[in-house]
Amino acid sequence: MRIATFNINGIKARIEALSDWLGEFKPDVALLQEIKSVDEGFPRAHFEDMGYIVETHGQKGFNGVAILSRLPLEDVTRGLPGDDSDEQARWIEATVMGAGAAVRVCCLYLPNGNPVPGPKYDYKLAWMARLETHARSLLAQEQPLVVAGDYNIIPQDEDAARPEAWAADALALPQSRAAFRRIVNLGFTEAIRTRNAAPGIYSFWDYQAGAWEKNNGIRIDHLLLSPQAADLLQDAGIDAAVRGRDKPSDHVPVWIELAA
DNA sequence: ATGCCAAGAAAGTCTTGA
């Protein structure tokens, strides 16, 4: 089972680039963030015609997440538990029925949190505390589980080409990194780092100042695996070349292959 | 430090992103 996470930065602007990539990479499951669309505005039929089941959790203008799957989905839920007053569309989860195993997949768009300090950073940390609580209950089910998406966290200095530029940013502050580590340390395996321990691998390059051409990137899109999912892991990678294509997102797909 | 670019909502120029 091939699962990818991809912050597409707007479904309307990315429908061609996303379709091309789906046709080439043929993921069984694509976890999309920043669809920037309401559910009714998502081009559902277009992706159904490509063989995908489409589940969205959108909102007007920004945010929004979606799951595209070529395998059957069960028990789709929307919204991160823990705060019924939270209106932002940043979480959708479902069970993917693989031939060999069922895999619970969670698609998240974690708040950016800038500027610091301020209410946006408070919201980020509160959201991460809710994620920790929910992740703990999901892990307790002791099943294959993938919690993936745009975490908006640079886990360590080697995950940025210019870590000094991010030192005071919400993506890299010690408090942000500590919150991410608390989640990982519940028992997750960070998929990419099982395959590549070297610095210099990124998943985001800013549109500004020639960041892609200079390889001035950061690694902020992650797939966290429960022990039962990690046991199924066959491969993991980042499809960085997508960033160099026409009309790209500023993020690229990050993927895993599971024996499921 | 800021926001060089991009997207969306909307119809001028904001907001948001990272």
Structure notes:
The protein is of the alpha+beta class and 260 residues long. It has a single domain, classed as Endonuclease/exonuclease/phosphatase (Deoxyribonuclease I, Chain A). The chain is built from 7 helices and 14 strands. It has helices at 11-25, 44-49, 119-139, 163-166, 174-184, 191-195, 227-230, and strands spanning 2-7, 29-33, 53-57, 65-69, 73-78, 91-97, 102-109, 145-150, 189-190, 204-205, 217-218, 221-225, 233-238, 254-258. The strands form 3 sheets. It has a 6-stranded mixed sheet. The chain has a 6-stranded mixed sheet with strand order 5-6-7-8-12-9. It has a two-stranded antiparallel sheet with strand order 10-11. A hairpin with a 7-residue loop joins β3 (53-57) and β4. α3 packs parallel to α5 (174-184). It is globular, with a radius of gyration of 17 Å. The mean pLDDT is 96. The protein binds one DNA strand of 18 nucleotides through residues 9-10, 12-13, 34, 36-37, 60-63, 112-114, 152, 166, 169-171, 204, 206-211, 218, 220, 249-250.
Short description:
This protein has seven helices and 14 strands. It is of the alpha+beta class and 260 residues long. Helix 3 (119-139) packs parallel to helix 5 (174-184).
